[in-house]
Design a protein that fits this description.
The complex is a heterodimer of chains A (248) and B (71).
Chain A lengths: L3 H33 L1 H28 L2 H27 L8 H18 L4 H29 L4 H22 L8 H23 L10 H27 L1
Helix pairs in contact in A: 1-2, 1-4, 1-5, 1-6, 1-7, 2-5, 3-5, 3-7, 3-8, 4-5, 5-6, 7-8
Chain B lengths: L1 H14 L3 H20 L4 H26 L3
Helix pairs in contact in B: 2-3
Classes of the chains: A mainly alpha (248), B mainly alpha (71).
Chain lengths: 248, 71
């Protein structure tokens, strides 16, 4: 029986991170569909998903052969790099140092780039549209795959974490089908802040376990780590806001 | 080929957002690992150093970028 204190952060991190990435991929696929119809968009997106599935199928058996402590250490370090990178950027966005993501602007830029690319490369617009959709799904999906593997592989939580990611995909697609425009009202930076906090907490936890550290309270230590990273991120955002004014 | 390059750039970019932060995180992990393994440091103290070090690095990296006004 898996502990809720272990499963909940893993599923939550996979779900929230997937929402962020799926929203970004959806914006580009929608731009493709609006410009060239749903067929190239759907074919490109399906192609991207197929490549991602291939990567997961290749990686799965390899991960099972790696000793658990080495796996925890490697994944922990990667999670620290990835999670703290997200948290740093989210803090800078919250502090007004770098601009927030604007899905409407990304939608317009992607549509313009697609037309320009098709004319420059003298390819049919359908071909360029399909490739653009494929790339969007593949590139954004890679991060989802990494997060699912990273938060799930250390404790046999790959299936719950995958279900968390799948739930996010279904949710975004369902909302996207209904509203049929870029999902610009998703509080993306808040989500990224939350995901950065959780991934950084997982990163310290796995890295420590990989180094042979037995954390007091075991999985419950994750909650303490998350609270501390949240505090550090908020302090960082607050200091960034002050420094931005000071140095402006 | 272009797509493979973009894929590689995406993969690298996932883990190396800011070079100084990346190197510092790796240095802390290496230092804690060495201290625990080779000097017999209490693993819990090593864990506390890892956690505290990462928290300080995060705040420092955000402040430095804010001062520079960079991303």
């Amino acid at each position: 029986m898996m502990a809720l204190s272990t499963a909940a952060p893993a599923v939550g991190a996979a779900f929230l991170a997937s929402i962020v990435e799926v929203v970004e991929a959806f914006t580009i696929v929608l731009a493709v569909a609006t410009l060239r119809g749903w067929r190239p968009a759907a074919v490109g997106a399906a192609g991207g998903l197929a490549v991602l599935a291939g990567i997961v199928l290749l990686l799965g058996p390899v991960l099972n052969r790696i000793p658990i402590t080495s796996l925890q250490l490697a994944i922990g370090i990667l999670l620290l790099l990835f999670g703290m990178g997200w948290l740093r950027k989210a803090s800078l966005r919250a502090g007004g140092v770098i601009p927030l993501h604007d899905e409407n602007a990304i939608f317009a830029a992607e549509a313009a780039a697609l037309v320009e690319q098709a004319s420059r490369q003298r390819r049919s617009l359908s071909w360029a549209a399909g490739i653009t959709a494929l790339k969007a799904v593949l590139l954004e999906g890679l991060e989802v795959v990494f997060i699912v593997i990273a938060v799930g592989a250390g404790r046999g939580l790959l299936v719950p974490a995958s279900l968390g990611a799948l739930a996010a995909c279904v949710l975004v697609l369902a909302i996207g089908v209904v509203v049929h425009r870029p999902l610009s009202r998703v509080p993306e930076n808040n989500l990224k802040f939350g995901v950065g906090v959780m991934l950084s907490a997982f990163g310290v936890f796995w890295t420590g376990e990989g180094l042979g550290i037995a954390w007091p309270g075991q999985d419950l230590a994750l909650l303490l780590f998350a609270a501390l990273f949240l505090g550090a991120g908020l302090i960082g955002a607050s200091l960034a806001r002050k420094l931005r004014v000071e140095f402006a | 080929m272009t797509m493979l390059k973009e894929l590689a750039a995406e993969l690298i970019g996932m883990f190396i957002g800011e070079k100084r932060l990346t190197i510092s995180i790796l240095a802390i992990v290496a230092a804690v690992g060495s201290l625990v393994d080779f000097t017999g440091l209490d693993p819990l103290l090593g864990g506390a150093a890892l956690l505290l070090g990462c928290l300080i690095l995060l705040i420092d990296s955000v402040c430095r970028s804010a001062r520079a006004g960079a991303s």
